[in-house]
Design brief:
This protein is α+β, with helices and mostly antiparallel strands and 361 residues long. It has four helices and 22 strands. Among the domains are: 84 residues, conserved putative lor/sdh protein from methanococcus maripaludis s2 fold; 85 residues, Beta Barrel (Elongation Factor Tu (Ef-tu), domain 3), CATH 2.40.30; 76 residues, Orthogonal Bundle (Helix Hairpins).
C-alpha cells in the first residue's frame, strides 16, 4: 500500500516537472530577413512610335542612253577610227566594213533597173502603136493585147528591180557603223581586219546628257517608294557631295522570292557628274510602331540579354528585351513592354528583380 503511494507521487512529480519545463522553455525565434534599403530611382514612360532610319543603297551611275553597236551584215572590218574615251557626235562614223561586195550588188541592181526601164519604154511604144493600128483595123485585137501584156510585165519587172536596188543600197549603208547619239566610246570589241559577224558587238557608247542611277532594294523598302518621288543621292568619292534625284521607274515584280527590286533614279546635272561613278541612294524608312525607351534605361546593352527595370507599384520587375534601331536619345525595343509602362532610367545599377524603390520627385 505504501509502495503504491510512493509510485503515484513519483509519477505526479514527473508530470509536474514536464509542465514546468514546457511553460518556461523559450519560444522559437523567426528568422530575421535583412531587406535592402529602398533605392531611389528616376523613371520615364514607355512610348510607341514608328522609327525613322536612314539607309543607303550603293550603285554605279550610268547614262540614260547606252548602246552596244554591231553590224547587221557579215564582212571584214577595214576601219575603226574611234577608241575608248573618244567623244563622238550623232552620225559620226565609228567603223566600216569591206564594201566591195555591196558596191557590186548596187551596181548590178542599178544596171538591171536601167535595162528594164529601156525595155519598158520600148514596150510602151509598141503598145501605143498597136493601139492605133487596132483602131484603124490594120492590126488585130490579139496583137494589141500581147503588146499590152508585155508592157505590164515590164512595169512589174521594173518595180522589182528598183526594190532590189533599194535593198542593195540599204546593205551598202549597213557597211558603215554610225553613232546613234552624241556620247563617249566606252568599249571596243573588234579591231580592223577582223571578221564582223551580224550582231557581234563592235563598240559600246554612252550618252553625255542625262545621268541616272540604278540600285536594288529589298521587299521591305520597295513598298514605300513611288514613281516621281524626290530622293537624295550622295557621291562618296566627290567629298560626299549631295544631289537631288527623282524615281523614274521601279520593278513591279522580282524574278523569285527573296530577290531585290531594281529602282532607277534620274539625277540632277551637276559639274563633274558622269557615267561610271559610285553613288549612294539615301532613303528614310519608317518602321512599324514599336515600344521606345530612353537609351539610359537599358541594362547591359552590350550583352546577349539586355533588360530594363519596370516600376510595378513600389517594386521593380526586370524584363529582358531585344534592341531595335536608335532614334536620337531613344531606342526601339521588343519584349513584354507596353506603352505607358514606367522604366527606370537612373539608379538601376544596383537594382535586382523585386527590389523596393522610391521614385524621386
Amino acid at each position: 500500500m505504501r509502495t503504491g503511494k510512493i509510485v503515484s507521487m513519483f509519477i505526479g512529480l514527473s508530470f509536474l516537472g514536464s509542465a514546468l519545463a514546457y511553460a518556461f522553455w523559450p519560444a522559437p525565434r523567426e528568422p530575421i530577413i535583412n531587406e535592402p534599403p529602398v533605392a531611389m530611382v528616376n523613371v520615364m514612360t514607355v512610348t510607341s512610335e514608328g522609327m525613322r532610319r536612314e539607309i543607303r543603297f550603293s550603285g554605279i551611275t550610268r547614262a540614260e542612253k547606252e548602246a552596244v553597236l554591231s553590224f547587221f551584215v557579215p564582212a571584214r572590218m577595214v576601219q575603226r577610227p574611234v577608241k575608248i574615251g573618244d567623244r563622238v557626235s550623232k552620225g559620226d562614223v565609228l567603223a566600216r566594213l569591206d564594201s566591195r561586195e555591196f558596191d557590186y550588188a548596187v551596181a548590178k541592181a542599178r544596171a538591171r533597173v536601167a535595162e528594164t526601164n529601156v525595155r519598158l519604154i520600148q514596150a510602151k511604144r509598141e503598145r501605143h502603136r498597136f493601139k492605133r493600128l487596132a483602131d484603124k483595123k490594120v492590126a488585130s485585137t490579139e496583137e494589141y493585147e500581147q503588146a499590152d501584156t508585155m508592157a505590164g510585165a515590164l512595169e512589174d519587172s521594173l518595180q522589182a528591180a528598183e526594190a532590189q536596188r533599194r535593198e542593195a543600197l540599204r546593205l551598202l549603208s549597213e557597211a558603215i557603223l554610225r553613232a546613234p547619239f552624241t556620247g563617249t566610246i566606252t568599249a571596243v570589241h573588234l579591231e580592223p581586219g577582223e571578221w564582223a559577224a551580224p550582231g557581234s558587238p563592235v563598240v559600246e557608247m554612252s550618252g553625255d546628257e542625262n545621268i541616272e542611277l540604278e540600285v536594288e532594294v529589298p521587299e521591305s523598302v520597295i513598298g514605300q517608294l513611288r514613281e516621281d518621288d524626290n530622293v537624295h543621292v550622295v557621291l562618296p568619292f566627290m567629298g560626299d557631295q549631295r544631289l537631288e534625284g527623282r524615281v523614274t521607274s521601279m520593278a513591279q515584280a522580282a524574278t523569285s522570292s527573296g530577290r531585290l527590286f531594281p529602282v532607277v533614279v534620274a539625277l540632277d546635272s551637276i559639274p563633274g557628274l558622269m557615267a561610271g561613278m559610285t553613288a549612294e541612294l539615301i532613303l528614310e524608312v519608317r518602321s512599324a510602331p514599336m515600344p521606345v525607351v530612353p537609351v539610359g534605361a537599358i541594362v547591359n546593352p552590350g550583352s546577349s540579354r539586355p533588360s530594363v527595370f519596370v516600376l510595378d507599384k513600389e517594386r521593380v520587375k526586370e524584363i529582358f528585351v531585344e534592341l531595335g534601331p536608335f532614334h536620337g536619345d531613344s531606342i526601339a525595343v521588343s519584349g513584354m513592354l507596353t506603352p505607358g509602362d514606367r522604366v527606370v532610367i537612373s539608379g538601376h545599377t544596383s537594382l535586382s528583380n523585386g527590389r523596393k524603390v522610391k521614385v524621386q520627385s
